[in-house]
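step: validate -> pass
step: tokenize input -> pass
step: predict -> running
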Amino acid sequence: MEEIIYRIAISLPGFLLAIVCHEAAHAWMAYRFGDTTAKFQGRLSLNPMVHYDLVGTVIFPLIGAVMGGAMFGWAKPVPVDSRRFKNVRSGVFWVSFAGPLANLILMVVSAFFFAILVTKVSPNSSYHTIAGDMLKQSIFINVLLAVFNLIPFPPLDGSKMVSSLLDYNQARKFEELQRFSFVFIFILILTPVLNYIMAPAIWVSNVLVNVFIHLLASM
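step: predict -> pass
step: emit ->
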């Protein structure tokens, strides 16, 4: 039980920041392209309560933590009305990409702070271990969310980015794959497929951490 509580404690800050920034980024980019729907519904915010989803924000990530894995989940999807975009194709692409991009930025920031912790803070400090574990979890969670959402299968963000590049008929046929989304996600989670997809991104994040450590160590 102590191990589960510790895993939740070190994962929760990074997890909440990751899903909140993901949805807020969708809302902000939609607003930039002319859609005020999310803004008027209060979703252009970093307040976790406005993005809260019982299953995705509480139940699913807690199950992951209890089972010994990462806290993985989602927030309530941001409402987007693409008809209000000044440029529909460009708007759909960038609004969809904004969420994963926010997670990639958070991953880089977390990697940088982890490198600062390793190179500039004494390992004997009382908070060194827990801060390091929190930052490592933040790096992993943001990589996981970014890569997972960039998979080009409906209804993930990656599929909407692909749809924005297709003509109308091609996009509609492509979006019909959404009927198989549950099966697809089920396969991803319960088989090694997601691990194979994640491996290159995790390697890149590790390289980035090492680059930051070397740069800061030489300063």
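step: describe -> Residues 2-217 form one domain.
step: cleanup -> pass
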